[in-house]
Target: SWIM-type domain-containing protein
Amino acid sequence: MSAEELSKLSLRDTMVTTRAGAARLRTNPPQTPQESPTSSPISPTPSLIESTNGHIYDISTFDDELRRRAKIGLVKDDNNIRMRFCRETDDGAFFFNLDDDITIKVEEGRVPKCSCGNVQNEKACKHIFWFIGQLSSVLPTNQTIQLAGDGSSVKNTHPAEVLKMRSLQAFADHFHWVVEGEDLPDTDELIDEVANMMSCFEPNGLLPAEFKSEDTRELSEQSRMFRELRPIVIQHAIRYPAFFMQLQELCSPEFQVKVFFEKINKRIDEAFNALDEYIERGPTNHRTPSLDVVSCAARLEGLVEKIEEYREDSLVSNAGERRDDTEIERLAALAYVRMLEEVTSRNNDAYANSPWVTTEPPSDPMRNNLFVRLIGPASEENGFFVLDKLQDMAPHVVRHHGVDLGEIENRVRNTPLTPPAYLSVLRSLIQESRKRAASQSGGNSPKRTMQ
Model:
């Protein structure tokens, strides 16, 4: 195939690159005049061999040793050849770093060189055959691919020409190769990011910080086994940057944020459901999780702290600069307002009408009233449940919850149990978001003076 014909080819989305796809093609291989339906591509000295991605290569001019190398590089799934990273130099040479610190050098006008030491008499080794197989995968599968007599190139087309026609980046994007110089995290950041990604699939719903903790006392057997996968995945991610990039594509930052807050909201629901269970059944032994008022309040305060830890880790860079992530702030505010709505609607003696009578319920509001327990101690010193977290967010984020916060204000201002300081902070928060909304609408914005 000529260079002109190759230049008209494209990297196809439908290209067969998986084992399953190759298996289907092996079941119904493309028919060619040179190959009978009963011929086998793995005969001792075949003239044609079929690669793992369904391409047929003509190796009729090769000697037995070169055919053996071609079969290893082009046919075997378990040839242990993996790309680590690649680069292009200013003088037009290409370097491909493979596993085991093996490097292939490709430059125009010269036979590709491999550092494995198995290139003899200028003939290709298994690594170069593998590399040629990657480049020739842009060709259709319905034609036989002619290889040069030394195995170093597709006949009449040097590998460097193919790379320049399609660009190294195009092949890198298609095969998930890492191009040296791409912005990859350092080792510590990579280890942390892999753990964050794996936590999304943790079987017991652990949050990232919990998954990274060394404490395994309360983990199920399934969670312990999943945790043991972490160092294995990290090891591969460090050794193969392309593998790490594939993990990032599968588990994007947006996906991680979504999963985190799904887990948080599930825990919020579980906390209130457990309180309802306790109110209904009392301090008895039963299968459904239950929490008394004090324990439920502590659970909710813990969830607030977990959200804040996540915001801090996600929104603050290593340099201490705070970055804007609207989705994290939006979902965090939504979770906070949900908690506040539930708490402010439970301003009563939780046990007043409980059906259980075997024990005397507590009479202290700090122990029987969730509202008093969480909002009652509000002060500059003790903090303001949820509100001090909302204050830390941009006004436009809080503004989206203006209606809900207005209803909460109506609820808390009509009870003497609301600390004046708490009501004051709530009103200030609502007013500030309304002011910012009015100024951004342009209706009351001041006119600019001419410069």
User: Anything to note?
Assistant: Residues 3-175 form one domain. The CA atoms of residues 168 and 264 lie 43 Å apart. The two ends are 66 Å apart (CA to CA). The beta strands are 48-50, 56-58, 83-88, 94-98, 102-106, 113-114, 144-146.
